Amino acid sequence: MRRLTGNFLLHHLLRSANPQSSIIYSVFQFQFQFQFQFHFRNYSNHAHEIDTFVDRQLFINHVRDQCKLGFSDMNIPLSLFRQMTSVRPLPSIIDFCQLFTAMSKLKRLQPHSTIIALLRELELLGIRPDRQSLGILANCYCNLGRVDFGFSLMGKCLQLGYNPNCVTYNTLINGFVLGDKLPLANKLLDKIVNQGFQPSMATYAALVKGLCRMDRKAGAIKLLSRMQSGPFKPCKFMYTTIIESLCKDGLLNEALDLFANMKSEGITPDVVTYASLVRAIYNSGSRKEAKRMLDEILDSNIGPDVQTFTTLVDMFCKDGCINEAEAILQYMIERDKAPDIVTYSALLHGYCSRFQMGDAEKLLDLMAQKGCEPDLVILSTMIKGYSKIGRIGKARSLFQEFYKRGIKPDVAAYTTLINGLCKAKEFKVARNLFYKMQERGIPPNVVTYASLFDGLCKSDSTHVAMKMLEGMERKGVQPDITIYNILIGSLCEAERYDDVSKLLSDLASKGLEADVETFNIMINVFCKKGLMNEAIQLLTEMEEKGCYPNSETYDNIVRTFIHKNDLSSALYYRDVMVDKGFEAGAKKLPLKNTLRDRIRNEAIRKKVGVTVLQYMHEFFCIWVLSNEVPTGKSFKINRSGGATEVSDSESSIKSKQL
Q1: What is each CA distance from 536 to 135, 415, 557, 563, 613, in whole angstroms?
Q2: Which of 133, 335, 455, 527, by CA, is between 20 and 30 Å from 483?
Q3: Euclidean distance between the first and final Cα of the chain, in Å?
Q4: Domain assignments of the chain as residue spans, ordered by start
Q5: pTM of the model
Q6: Which fold does the domain 211-304 belong to in CATH?
């Protein structure tokens, strides 16, 4: 039998009048270099063959039943394959294809390379491939990103007398989509439609998903319009995929328009569609509209699952709308949709972030009633909540209670409690806990060290932190720039500048670089001490090293110059700040009525941070920003830089401090 090479196949396809062949050649002029040799053998009795026809048939029926049920891992199907190849006579290619199809559904295990190897083994056993087995092989290659090998198999199909059909072309189009080669996928789609072939619904769905993944949502919407004139109409999955992609990119109006089209076509949205829209609408600030759509979900017969409810609870909690989150949880319980640990954790985090620890405790009781045991995430959340409101004793007792229940705290739980103890200035207890966690076999991470170092430095124990820094690397923990920033700030406060220089030198050897926070810490310390020459020198050094100052850098410098009554320097660096394009967020000034509003408006118009202005006196603020004295008021500047207002109706002088 003549063996066809890749080049021969290509020229054979070129000369052929077969439209399927011309499609393959005209779209992709691949150099087929893949060869498949099929060996036909006659087998005699095998030592392990199943002797009777009845036993053989029972075994094959068993394999078919197993394939229908599906597999959870690769062990069972591989074992079945080995047993099938020991049966004589060998099972048909149809039975093997059924096994390979079931294996291909285990996508999370990436079975495609294994299936290719097994199909090769069948070739060596002399089992002739059919259209389905070649399709499975092409699909495996496409999933591995080798669409060119898939096209090579189309040549083999022609050699064996199998003309490519819709399934063949759909496989190749899906391969291009998976490989993010959408132009080629669209080109092949146009070719096969012109030749009278009709893509499947799965092919269209794959194209829509691929277009959205590549941020080509306009193309996906255009494809939906194109489908309207064909035999396959857009399905729920396609609409939902595009709507979800539009919502993620903040294109809410486009998503709502498509949602309206979806319903006008008689397609009922599912929970995924609604959940995407509710989140997008809520994030846009339209809470009433989001609430209306949420009511639409709950009043419908869609039946949101626990995951969807959890998403909504988490969304409301992050936005601070605890009442809405509680309503969702209550609705779940009433509809027998038992909340899981993730749902409770989301609501608990909402309570703790708003310091509603009483409600958090009640939620823990509710969890116990529902048989839902708290986990480590909930433990850390509760400890953090108690620490923030200063109830560190309650945090410690809760930590011990969980330990008694057999819930072994992890490094995150220990770090949370150590951080809380340091903030409560219980530094000795924090250090003891730090050593105890290591005794219990839980090594601290860099965040743990950062929390403890911050506490040690604030308790005038910087020398202890410096010694611990030396031992970090020996324990396999690499200090990051946050660790160094904490130490540098403390050393600067103590005027230990030689040690600061040593730490800065160590950064390079550790593969670290001083960041803007590092410089801001040192500049802030110099500003507090009134060492403005040193602060300005650091500012210049920052820019020379490519670490550009931020708004906090300039705020510190301008504020200090104002405090030192150095108006010209304050104005100069204010102008530099504005020229750099920094705009600090406007904060409330301690002023009243129209004068305060005027200052704020001037600050916004001049793009000057109000954080700087709040350190100026009333007259000084107006004068710096607009170079004019407020009309209707008389002021005089005192020696300390304060502004004194002279009342028109009174002869007395009132000093006003802002």
Answers
A1: 71, 37, 8, 16, 21
A2: 527
A3: 99
A4: 211-304, 583-658
A5: 0.52
A6: 1.25.40
